[in-house]
Design brief:
By secondary structure, the chain is of the alpha/beta class. The protein has six helices and seven strands. Strand 1, helix 1 and strand 2 form a beta-alpha-beta unit.
């Protein structure tokens, strides 16, 4: 698989856990952009993971090949709606938030269909994440392979 760019919208706890898992496994992707509206959270993430690009612009993170929506459910609708014009047609969007179905996310994103849901389950002292995943069987095989490659590091 060629090196895909990854974007995270939201830079909180679950993003830190995922990045730490990749780092500990020696499988940290090379091109990661993390966006968060909290400058302090971004600074903390940047200090922990110097190789990432930390920005306060969702559109920059949304312009990557695989985009993770890592925001809390109360702001998910607003965040998903704001991405409509920023996503490439080939982007895969992965929601890490509960409560929002793929159908609802697609509706919020103007009919965008390259969506998956991953619901991480990380206890408070987690150094690893259990991730039940859903990716539509309607995706073509190369798309499914790109999605699963992120998790099979």
């Amino acid at each position: 698989m060629n090196q895909k760019t990854l974007g995270f919208i939201g830079g909180g706890r679950i993003v830190r856990i995922i990045l730490e898992g990749w780092r500990r496994a020696g499988k940290m992707p090379g091109n990661i952009v993390v966006s968060d509206c909290n400058a302090e959270a971004l600074a903390k993430l940047q200090s922990q993971f110097p190789s990432i690009k930390a920005v306060n612009d969702k559109a920059v993170a949304a312009a990557q090949d695989i985009v993770f929506l890592a925001v809390h459910p109360p702001v998910m609708a607003e965040t998903a709606s704001a991405l409509k014009g920023s996503l490439k047609p080939t982007t895969i969007v992965v929601s890490l938030a509960p409560k929002f179905t793929i159908a609802r996310l697609s509706e919020l994103m103007g009919g965008f269909t390259r969506l998956a849901r991953v619901i991480p389950n990380a206890p408070p002292s987690a150094t690893s994440v259990t991730t039940p995943c859903h990716s539509p069987k309607s995706w073509p095989p190369p798309t499914r392979k790109r999605f699963w490659a992120c998790w099979n590091r």
